[in-house]
Amino acid sequence: MSQLDKDIISMRDLSKDQVTGILERARYMDERLKARDPPRSLAGRMIASLFFEPSTRTRLSFETAAKCMGGMVTGFSSPKGTSVEKGETLSDTVRTVEQYADAIVMRHPFEGAARLASEAVSIPVVNGGDGSNQHPTQTLLDLYTIWKHKGTFDLKVALVGDLKHARTTRSLAYALGMFGADIALVAPKGLEMSTEVVDEVRQQWGTNITHAHDPATSLGDVDAAYVVRIQKERFADPLELKRLQRSYRITKDTLASLKSDAIIMHPLPRVDEVETSVDQSDHAVYFDQAYNGVPVRMAVLEMLINGGDA
Predict the structure, then answer these.
(1) Same domain for 148 and 271?
(2) DSSP label at residue 305
(3) Phi-psi region of 151 (alpha: psi -120 to 50; beta: other; left: phi over 0)
(4) What is the pLDDT of residues 41-88, one digit of tens each?
(5) Is 23 in the same domain as 115?
(6) What span, in angstroms and rounded, lies between the C-alpha atoms of 222 and 206?
(7) Are residues 75 and 209 in the same domain?
(8) Confidence band (pLDDT; 50, 70, 90) for 243?
(9) Strand order in the sheet with 263-265
(10) Residues that are catalytic
(11) CA angle (297 as vertex; 292, 303 as ends), nearest 5
(12) Do 71 and 162 belong to one domain?
């Protein structure tokens, strides 16, 4: 298996062998966590957590991952109170932080910010989300969740909701194509995944991709449904928004149409696109999905900082 490169900025930077290596190492980390015996492989190492915009799961799971392996964490959860408010450039910020840390995990509102940061420093940079562009470790934990629950990628996976604006579904479509899954894109008219992304996945991996607009009739044959919210900030007409939110909502009634072993995923946070009554169903795995961010990010941090094969 090939080694990881210095940074993880985009899923397109990772080969199938590298992704497989991360998933296998994450499974090992998962087992060690369940045994209450995580490896102390980051003892004495410092992780800089630089979050220029809000985050709950990504920031906390990265910090948990580092600490579980004996690492230390420094950084900020908002640029407020930092030299960014004084006009310091991103390049100068990360070059300064490089003096204090062994790796940087960064979320930033601007597309391309993580790539810029990685080019400015010699330590590893992990992209924790750059605007609407990329969020590679979210995709890795999504893949791990599917693999953990289904044991294979020889599946049909539905991506459901606002696929035009959701960065998680764009990266996941690429990754699912890499591993040979069939993909069903289920989105309201006008909120479909961009043709550029669809064409890239088809051309790169020869993926079987279908399109639908009605989740009520489109999920009966899928092995996993990955749901994202209808983004209200994109709508000028509140009545149209409410109509779409109702029709793209997963409820207890929806479960009756699913295969008995189908799983429902969500990157969280949710609004009301998955009814809370679904939470107790065996189909619902989205809180385990959030947990999976810890072993996956343990694997990523260990492999980037300590080296070794992926």
Answers:
(1) yes
(2) H
(3) left
(4) 999 999 999 999 988 999 999 999 999 999 999 999 988 888 888 889
(5) yes
(6) 19
(7) no
(8) low
(9) 209-212, 182-186, 156-160, 224-227, 263-265
(10) 57-58, 86, 107, 135
(11) 135
(12) no
Could you give the percent of the chain with pLDDT greater than 90? 73
Write out the DSSP string of 215-279. GGGTSTT-SEEEE----GGG-S-HHHHHHHHHHT-B-HHHHTTS-TT-EEE--S--SSSB-GGGT
Q: Domain of 77?
A: 11-134+293-306
- Non-local (6+) Cβ contacts of 65 within 8 A are 293, 294, 295, 297, 298, 300, 301
Provide the number of structural domains found in the chain.
2
SS (H, E, C) 46-102: EEEEEECCCCCHHHHHHHHHHHHCCCEEEEECCCCCCHHHHCCCHHHHHHHHCCCCC
Burial of 151 (0-12, 13-18, 19+ CB in 10 A): exposed
Residues 225 and 299 in one domain: no
In a domain, 247, yes or no: yes
Residue located via tokens 């149409």: 257
Identify whether residues 145 and 253 lie together within a single domain: yes
pLDDT digit string, tens, across residues 275-291 = 999 999 999 999 999 99
For residue 4, is it within any domain? Answer: no
Q: Token pair of 94, please?
A: 């990360």
Mean pLDDT on 85-93: 91
Q: How confident is the model at residue 143 (pLDDT cuts 50, 70, 90)?
A: very high
What distance lies between CA 96 and its chain's CA centroid? 28
Residue 6 domain-assigned (yes or no): no
Q: Tokens 């940079």: give the residue.
A: 125
Model confidence, pTM? 0.92
